[in-house]
Amino acid sequence: MKRHLTTMRGEAALAAVIVINSFGVLLMLYSGAGISAISSVPYAFSESFPALTLGAWTFIFQTLLVASLMVMRRRFVPQYLFSFAVGFAFSFMMDVHEKWMTLLPDGFSWRVVYFFISWAVICFGIALSNRCRMPIIPTDLFPRELAFITGVSYPKIKISFDVICLAVTAALTFCFLGEVRGLGLGTVAAAFTMGKGVGVIGGWMDRFVRFMSFCDGHRAHQALLLRVRSYRQGLR
């Protein structure tokens, strides 16, 4: 028996992703277990060069990721430009969360809870962004597109990307601060498990929900133009 899927708007899903993923990243850092791997590199730069905020360094890092995808594809990809706007919103929300998060209760037990909540929130947010059929946050876009370009499975790409981010962070903070900062046991554990977590949560989403967005109409229009162009070329 075919399961009925609930239809949700991709625009609303993307808005939720921006809010909850930025919250998850900051909550993991606040837990004391270390910052999430995808934000560890901007964090290292914000600690080493504090003239810019964590949000600003995050936007710069995301811009470089999108640019590198275009280099690997060897062509300009207009759809990637929307990710810049999404990345800016994500960076802004990180600065917003950073201002109020210090009001949360402190203590070892609370920090353990914060870590597990942040891990689950980030996994859920990434799985949601991969399915919302909208331009997504560049740090989520990069492993997804790299998996498509290379043909390697997403979990393997995601784990490798996270581990590389951790290595860069460790090297950067050690060179400029004299100590490894921002990385903890939780960061390493998340790096090696988050790819699998995203896959499991994404599989669960696929059983119950499908997403539609304004981009679907654009894709359909582009496909129609391609079919018309192919038909005209066949008549020549």
Descriptive tags:
two-stranded parallel ribbon; 236 residues; mainly alpha; disordered C terminus; 3% strand; 77% helix; globular; 9 helices
Radius of gyration: 19 Å
Q: Which structural class is indicated by helix and strand composition?
A: mainly alpha
Q: Separation of termini?
A: 48 Å
Summarize the main sheet: 2 strands, parallel
Strand order in the sheet with the most strands: 1-2
The helix/strand order is EHHHHHHHHEH
Measured by DSSP, the beta-strand proportion falls in under 5%
Shape: globular
Task: Name the poorly predicted regions.
Answer: 218-236
The DSSP helix count reads 9
Let me know the number of strands: 2
Overall average pLDDT: 81
Percent of residues in helices comes to over 70%
Explain how this protein is built.
With 236 residues, the chain is mainly alpha-helical. It has 9 helices and 2 strands. Helix 5 (108-129) packs across helix 8 (185-208), helix 6 (138-150) packs across helix 7 and helix 7 packs antiparallel against helix 8. The longest helix has 24 residues, at 154-177. The N and C termini lie far apart (48 Å). Mean pLDDT is 81; it is low at 218-236.
Topology:
Elements lengths: L5 E4 H21 L6 H12 L5 H20 L4 H23 L7 H22 L8 H13 L3 H24 L7 H24 E4 L1 H22 L1
Parallel strand pairs: 1-2
Condensed summary:
The protein is mainly α and 236 residues long. It has helices spanning 10-30, 37-48, 54-73, 78-100, 108-129, 138-150, 154-177, 185-208, 214-235, and strands at residues 6-9, 209-212. The model is unreliable at 218-236 (pLDDT under 50).
